[in-house]
User: Which sequence fits this backbone?
């Protein structure tokens, strides 16, 4: 299905050409296979946000504060680390025993049966499996807000799918009323991210439940709850309640954020058993999950004290950031998550590169002709480094 040169290789060659770099024929033919990342230097790296951080990092000075990917610098919990170590001796075996136990544990906590749960190596695998299932097996286009997390949509379009966008409101909220009016049986899926990335805003829970009930009758709804654990009251805000009511809704959760498992790779999907069965055709059905990560996730899942600690630390660092921005006269969106999105007056690319030169990694967006910075919440030391670099860069 993928007919053209992939986007990243194209962007790389485009970035090189626009820097005026002379490309040797051998570099051109190498394409993405041997990934000639080394040709980039910080000054030549015109469009770093289009590259993954790992690629960009190769030629940037080492980051002292990596605030690009909304990771949780306070974890994993001690209990999770212990479980990880304990599981090493049995890791010569596939982890089916752990997976079965873990699924049972999630099902019990969420109040559903185990056939409502699908595990993934991070939620990315589940977003991708759902995207492919709806793209290949059903007809229509995905309906999504015009500023959101792009992973599921990107997978769909790479496989020949289409996406219809609904503008955010002026306050950068997801416009559920407009989405409701637009949703029709010509959509094969509605994608919503709650809280939304990159804005950090949540949707009103009761409005979202009613949206799921009515729109779910026309088209399935995928709710990405990667950051729901940071919300003050996660349970009533989670749309797992809709799955329990039998609505046509699936909810993706990840351990990469509050549980601090970004490198351990654990996520899960909660949906009706028939939906889980369909989506699992396009995923690994848990086959990509390591026994060690699964054992650690089970320990983390039950470590309520760690959640509290992790959330408190996030709030302290976030408040420090808010104060910095207040003092400097910057507007920002109050975030329910572990990242903050705010408008900047400098060109986004330039800002991002200058911050990287100060060894602070951030992301930028350009939306409705306005440049924005998205900064992840790190440790207090990270936020102090951010403040120092930010003051220097925007001075
Ligand atoms: N969904 C959202 C909204 C995200 O921001 C991310 C990662 O940043 C993911 C899903 C994927 O995370 P993971 O694959 O680590 O679970």
Assistant:
């Amino acid at each position: 299905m993928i007919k053209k040169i992939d986007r990243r290789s194209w962007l790389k060659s485009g970035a090189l050409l626009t820097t005026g770099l002379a490309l040797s024929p051998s570099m051109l033919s190498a394409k993405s296979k041997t990934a000639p990342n080394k040709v980039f230097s910080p000054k030549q790296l015109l469009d770093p946000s289009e590259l993954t951080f790992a690629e960009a990092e190769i030629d940037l000075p080492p980051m002292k504060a990596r605030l690009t990917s909304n990771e949780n610098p306070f974890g994993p919990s001690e209990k999770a680390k212990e479980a990880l170590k304990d599981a090493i001796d049995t890791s010569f075996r596939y982890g089916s025993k752990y997976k079965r136990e873990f699924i049972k544990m999630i099902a019990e906590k969420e109040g559903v049966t185990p056939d409502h749960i699908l595990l993934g190596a991070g939620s990315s695998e589940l977003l991708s499996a759902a995207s492919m299932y709806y793209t290949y097996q059903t007809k229509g286009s995905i309906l999504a807000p015009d500023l959101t997390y792009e992973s599921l949509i990107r997978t769909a379009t790479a496989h020949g799918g289409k996406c219809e966008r609904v503008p955010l409101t002026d306050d950068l909220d997801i416009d559920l009323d407009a989405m409701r009016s637009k949703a029709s049986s010509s959509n094969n899926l509605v994608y919503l991210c709650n809280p939304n990335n990159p804005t950090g805003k949540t949707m009103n829970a009761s409005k979202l439940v009613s949206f799921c009930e009515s729109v779910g009758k026309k088209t399935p709804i995928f709710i990405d709850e990667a950051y729901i654990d940071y919300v003050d009251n996660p349970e009533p805000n989670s749309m797992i309640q809709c799955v329990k009511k039998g609505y046509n809704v699936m909810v993706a959760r990840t351990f990469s954020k509050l549980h601090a498992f970004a490198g351990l790779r654990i996520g899960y999907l909660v949906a009706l058993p028939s939906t889980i069965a369909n989506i699992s055709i396009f995923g690994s059905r848990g086959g990509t999950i390591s026994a060690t990560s699964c054992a650690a996730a089970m320990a983390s899942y039950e470590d309520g004290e760690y959640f509290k600690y992790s959330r408190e630390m996030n709030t302290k660092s976030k408040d420090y950031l808010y104060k910095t921005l207040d003092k400097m006269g910057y507007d920002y969106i109050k975030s329910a998550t572990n990242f903050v999105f705010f408008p900047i007056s400098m060109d986004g690319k330039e800002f991002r590169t200058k911050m990287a030169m100060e060894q602070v990694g951030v992301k930028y967006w350009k939306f409705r002709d306005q440049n924005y910075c998205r900064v992840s919440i790190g440790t207090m030391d990270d936020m102090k480094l951010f403040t120092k670099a930010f003051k220097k860069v925007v001075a």
User: Anything to note?
Assistant: The longest helix spans residues 304-327. The pocket of pyridoxal-5'-phosphate is lined by residues 69-70, 122-124, 149, 193, 197, 224, 226, 254, 256, 262, 267 (CB under 6 Å). DSSP finds 16 helices and twelve strands in the chain.
